[in-house]
Amino acid sequence: MKPEPTYEVTNYETLNKFLLGTLRDIRKKEIAIEEAQAISQISDKIIKNNLTMIMEAKRIGNSNPIEFFDPSNKQVMIG
What we know:
The protein is an all-alpha fold. It has helices at 12-27, 33-59.
């Protein structure tokens, strides 16, 4: 019995592991291409959102580190 994949992404390392697992599942034909495309699009949105936050912080001169996986920043990912 195959364990269910976890969708808990808490940092870039777990995001990368999740995406690599998705690639493995596509190769094994365990998930559909449409599902993989949706995962890819969501990941792209998260990364673009984070880059936008970095650029805005730099524009206004804020040098404080940005914690992208902070629960307060997850509102974007909630349905």
